[in-house]
Amino acid sequence: MTSWEVLPDGNILEVGHGPGHLLLKLSQNNRVGIGVDASAQMGWMATKRLHKHGYEPRIIQALSQRLPLTSSYFAGVVSTFPSEYIIDPDTISEIWRVLQPDGIFVIISSAQITGRNLPDRFAALLFRISGQSAEPGKSWNELLDHHGFSTHIDHVSQSRATVIRVIAHKNVLQNNFAPSSTQA
Questions:
Q1: What does each of the 184 residues of the chain score in pLDDT, given as a tens digit?
Q2: Any idea what DSSP says for residue 152?
Q3: Count of Cβ atoms closer than 10 Å to residue 178 Cβ
Q4: Could you tell me the pTM of the whole model?
Q5: Which domains, from first to last, does the chain contain?
Q6: Which of 176, 109, 106, 111 has the alpha carbon at shortest distance from 139?
Q7: How distant, in Å, are the alpha carbons of 70, 101, 109, 128, 165 from that of 155?
Protein backbone atom coordinates (compact mmCIF):
# COMPACT_ATOMS: atom_id res chain seq x y z
CA MET A 1 0.00 0.00 0.00
CA THR A 2 1.72 3.20 1.11
CA SER A 3 3.41 2.38 4.38
CA TRP A 4 6.15 -0.17 3.99
CA GLU A 5 7.72 1.33 0.86
CA VAL A 6 9.00 4.39 2.74
CA LEU A 7 10.55 2.38 5.54
CA PRO A 8 14.33 2.03 5.65
CA ASP A 9 16.22 -1.24 5.31
CA GLY A 10 16.52 -3.12 8.58
CA ASN A 11 14.16 -4.49 11.19
CA ILE A 12 10.60 -3.15 11.04
CA LEU A 13 8.08 -3.13 13.89
CA GLU A 14 4.38 -3.05 13.10
CA VAL A 15 2.40 -1.68 16.04
CA GLY A 16 -1.17 -2.98 15.97
CA HIS A 17 -0.50 -5.64 13.33
CA GLY A 18 -4.14 -6.76 13.14
CA PRO A 19 -4.73 -9.79 10.90
CA GLY A 20 -1.19 -9.63 9.48
CA HIS A 21 -1.63 -8.21 5.98
CA LEU A 22 1.34 -5.84 6.25
CA LEU A 23 3.54 -8.43 7.99
CA LEU A 24 2.85 -10.75 5.07
CA LYS A 25 3.68 -8.00 2.55
CA LEU A 26 6.94 -7.29 4.37
CA SER A 27 7.84 -11.00 4.37
CA GLN A 28 7.03 -11.34 0.68
CA ASN A 29 9.44 -8.48 -0.01
CA ASN A 30 12.29 -10.02 2.01
CA ARG A 31 11.86 -7.55 4.88
CA VAL A 32 12.17 -8.51 8.55
CA GLY A 33 8.90 -7.56 10.21
CA ILE A 34 7.94 -8.04 13.84
CA GLY A 35 4.36 -7.41 14.90
CA VAL A 36 2.97 -6.35 18.24
CA ASP A 37 -0.72 -6.24 19.08
CA ALA A 38 -2.67 -6.28 22.35
CA SER A 39 -5.24 -8.67 20.88
CA ALA A 40 -4.65 -12.43 21.13
CA GLN A 41 -7.25 -12.88 18.37
CA MET A 42 -5.27 -10.66 15.98
CA GLY A 43 -2.11 -12.57 16.87
CA TRP A 44 -3.81 -15.83 16.01
CA MET A 45 -5.13 -14.45 12.70
CA ALA A 46 -1.74 -13.02 11.70
CA THR A 47 0.06 -16.25 12.63
CA LYS A 48 -2.39 -18.28 10.56
CA ARG A 49 -1.99 -15.91 7.56
CA LEU A 50 1.82 -16.00 7.67
CA HIS A 51 1.97 -19.79 8.09
CA LYS A 52 -0.45 -20.26 5.18
CA HIS A 53 2.03 -18.45 2.92
CA GLY A 54 5.09 -20.26 4.29
CA TYR A 55 6.49 -17.53 6.56
CA GLU A 56 7.46 -17.84 10.20
CA PRO A 57 5.54 -15.25 12.24
CA ARG A 58 7.38 -12.89 14.56
CA ILE A 59 4.49 -11.74 16.71
CA ILE A 60 4.32 -10.45 20.27
CA GLN A 61 1.18 -9.84 22.32
CA ALA A 62 1.77 -6.63 24.24
CA LEU A 63 0.52 -3.11 24.78
CA SER A 64 2.12 -0.37 22.71
CA GLN A 65 2.64 1.65 25.88
CA ARG A 66 5.00 -1.02 27.29
CA LEU A 67 6.88 -2.67 24.43
CA PRO A 68 8.94 -5.67 25.62
CA LEU A 69 11.60 -4.92 23.00
CA THR A 70 15.23 -3.84 22.91
CA SER A 71 16.00 -0.13 22.72
CA SER A 72 17.25 1.24 19.37
CA TYR A 73 16.56 -2.08 17.60
CA PHE A 74 14.23 -1.03 14.77
CA ALA A 75 15.03 0.98 11.65
CA GLY A 76 11.33 1.67 11.20
CA VAL A 77 8.01 1.44 12.99
CA VAL A 78 4.70 1.39 11.15
CA SER A 79 1.06 1.47 12.19
CA THR A 80 -1.87 1.25 9.78
CA PHE A 81 -5.28 2.69 10.73
CA PRO A 82 -4.53 2.60 14.47
CA SER A 83 -6.93 3.61 17.19
CA GLU A 84 -6.27 6.25 19.85
CA TYR A 85 -3.45 4.27 21.52
CA ILE A 86 -1.09 5.52 18.80
CA ILE A 87 -1.16 9.09 20.13
CA ASP A 88 -0.84 8.07 23.77
CA PRO A 89 2.35 9.79 25.05
CA ASP A 90 3.51 6.46 26.51
CA THR A 91 3.18 4.81 23.08
CA ILE A 92 5.14 7.63 21.43
CA SER A 93 7.84 7.32 24.12
CA GLU A 94 8.12 3.58 23.54
CA ILE A 95 8.32 3.97 19.78
CA TRP A 96 11.05 6.59 20.24
CA ARG A 97 12.90 4.17 22.53
CA VAL A 98 12.83 1.16 20.18
CA LEU A 99 13.74 3.17 17.06
CA GLN A 100 17.36 3.48 15.98
CA PRO A 101 18.81 6.98 15.68
CA ASP A 102 17.35 8.56 12.53
CA GLY A 103 14.69 5.81 12.41
CA ILE A 104 11.34 6.39 10.73
CA PHE A 105 7.87 6.06 12.25
CA VAL A 106 5.08 5.82 9.65
CA ILE A 107 1.39 6.04 10.52
CA ILE A 108 -1.29 5.45 7.92
CA SER A 109 -3.81 7.44 9.88
CA SER A 110 -6.81 7.49 7.60
CA ALA A 111 -8.11 7.28 4.05
CA GLN A 112 -10.57 9.26 2.01
CA ILE A 113 -12.27 6.91 -0.43
CA THR A 114 -12.70 8.55 -3.82
CA GLY A 115 -14.07 5.66 -5.87
CA ARG A 116 -17.55 6.19 -7.28
CA ASN A 117 -18.98 2.66 -7.48
CA LEU A 118 -21.53 1.50 -4.91
CA PRO A 119 -19.12 -0.49 -2.69
CA ASP A 120 -16.70 2.47 -2.64
CA ARG A 121 -19.46 4.91 -1.70
CA PHE A 122 -20.60 2.55 1.07
CA ALA A 123 -17.02 2.20 2.34
CA ALA A 124 -16.62 6.00 2.24
CA LEU A 125 -19.73 6.36 4.39
CA LEU A 126 -18.40 3.81 6.91
CA PHE A 127 -15.01 5.56 6.99
CA ARG A 128 -16.71 8.92 7.69
CA ILE A 129 -18.85 7.41 10.46
CA SER A 130 -15.89 5.62 12.09
CA GLY A 131 -13.55 8.61 11.75
CA GLN A 132 -11.14 6.74 9.48
CA SER A 133 -11.36 9.51 6.89
CA ALA A 134 -10.49 12.35 9.25
CA GLU A 135 -7.24 14.29 9.00
CA PRO A 136 -4.83 13.62 11.89
CA GLY A 137 -4.68 17.30 12.82
CA LYS A 138 -2.09 19.70 14.16
CA SER A 139 -2.07 18.03 17.59
CA TRP A 140 -0.42 14.91 16.08
CA ASN A 141 2.47 17.00 14.74
CA GLU A 142 2.84 18.80 18.06
CA LEU A 143 2.82 15.56 20.07
CA LEU A 144 5.34 13.83 17.83
CA ASP A 145 7.55 16.92 17.61
CA HIS A 146 7.48 17.23 21.42
CA HIS A 147 8.80 13.66 21.66
CA GLY A 148 11.76 14.37 19.38
CA PHE A 149 10.42 13.57 15.94
CA SER A 150 10.50 15.72 12.81
CA THR A 151 7.05 15.16 11.38
CA HIS A 152 5.18 15.79 8.17
CA ILE A 153 1.82 14.65 6.86
CA ASP A 154 1.23 13.83 3.22
CA HIS A 155 -1.62 12.63 1.05
CA VAL A 156 -0.94 9.67 -1.22
CA SER A 157 -3.31 9.23 -4.15
CA GLN A 158 -4.37 5.68 -4.91
CA SER A 159 -6.71 4.48 -7.63
CA ARG A 160 -9.83 4.67 -5.43
CA ALA A 161 -8.68 6.52 -2.31
CA THR A 162 -6.38 9.15 -0.91
CA VAL A 163 -4.38 7.85 2.04
CA ILE A 164 -3.23 10.21 4.78
CA ARG A 165 0.27 9.28 5.91
CA VAL A 166 2.21 10.68 8.86
CA ILE A 167 5.98 10.30 8.56
CA ALA A 168 8.01 11.02 11.69
CA HIS A 169 11.81 10.90 11.66
CA LYS A 170 13.60 10.27 14.94
CA ASN A 171 16.15 13.02 15.19
CA VAL A 172 18.42 12.45 18.17
CA LEU A 173 20.10 15.83 17.72
CA GLN A 174 16.80 17.67 18.20
CA ASN A 175 15.36 15.42 20.90
CA ASN A 176 13.88 17.52 23.67
CA PHE A 177 12.30 14.54 25.38
CA ALA A 178 14.01 11.87 27.42
CA PRO A 179 11.86 8.73 27.45
CA SER A 180 11.11 7.60 30.99
CA SER A 181 11.33 3.92 30.06
CA THR A 182 14.72 2.22 30.15
CA GLN A 183 13.90 -1.29 28.98
CA ALA A 184 16.65 -3.22 27.27
A1: 445 578 889 999 999 999 999 999 999 999 999 999 999 999 999 999 999 999 999 999 999 999 999 999 999 999 987 878 888 999 999 999 999 999 999 988 766 677 778 877 777 777 677 765 566 666 777 888 888 898 888 878 778 777 778 899 998 765 444 444 444 3
A2: E
A3: 9
A4: 0.82
A5: 4-173 (3.40.50.150)
A6: 109
A7: 32, 26, 10, 17, 6
